[in-house]
Amino acid sequence: MLLTQCSITCYSPSEDHGPIHAPADEIKLRVYNCSQRRSPMGKLTGTEHGDRATALVAFYERESCKLKESGSYFMAAIALGFALEAAVLAYLLVEWGEDEGTELKVPESVALADLIEAAKELDLLSAPVLVPPELIGDVEPPKHIAKDVVDAIRQVRNLIHPARALKDSFDPRSFTFEQLREFKDKYWSVIYSLLYNL
Question: 32: which strand partners?
C-alpha cells in the first residue's frame, strides 16, 4: 500500500549501499535488499493518501541517505523518523478509508505517539521476525518485533525538538554511525511489519 509508486528505497539495514529505486510506473510494492533481488510483497492502493504518502516516504528516505553520506547521522535518523510517521499515518488513513468506503480527511494535527498507539491497537506492529518461505532471500528479515522498538524510534525522532533535546541533555553531534545503523534496523522492523499486514 505505501512504499513505492514514485521511486523509493527500502533500506537493507545490514548493508549500506546507495539507493535502489523502483520504476515510477510500477504499482506493486517491492521490498529490496542490497543484492537487488526484488519481490512483490503488497500493493499500493492508488488512493490519493497512499500516493502522496509514498512520495513523502520516498523523499524522507532519500534525504536520510544524503544526510548519512554527509556525516549528519542524527538528522539522517530524524528523516527516517518522519518517513515512518508518514507510512503509519497513510496506512491508517487508507485502511480506515477502505473500511468506510471513502477516502478519509487528513487530520489537522496528529501526534506520532497517537499513530503508534492506534497501530498497536490494530495489531499492525507484531509481525514475526521470520520471513515467509516464499520471500526468503528476497526480503531482509527484520531484527526486531516492531512493537518492541517503535517507541524507541519515536523517542529519538522527538529529539528534533530543542526543548526535548535540552531537557534530555542530548547533543545531536554525539549521534554516531553505529546508532544510525541500529535506528535503521528498528525502522525497517516497523516498515516490514506494516507491509506484512497489508
Answer: 38
**What is the C-alpha separation between 156 and 151, in angstroms, rounded?**
9
Tell me if 148 sits within 8 A of 127, measured CB to CB. no
Residue 57 corresponds to which cell in the numbers above? 516516504
Range of the domain at 166: 28-196
Domain count, the chain: 1
Percent of the chain with pLDDT over 90: 47
Distances (CA, A) of 73 to 145, 156, 162, 184: 24, 12, 17, 11
Residue 68 confidence class, pLDDT cut points 50, 70, 90: very high
In terms of pLDDT, which residue wins out, 151 or 31?
151
The answer to whether position 7 is within a domain reads no
Beta strands in 49-116 (DSSP E): none
Structural domain contains residue 1: no
Residue 161 lies in a domain: yes
pTM: 0.74
d(CA 101, CA 86): 22
Report the alpha-carbon distance of residue 62 to residue 152 in Å, rounded: 22
Average pLDDT value for the chain = 76
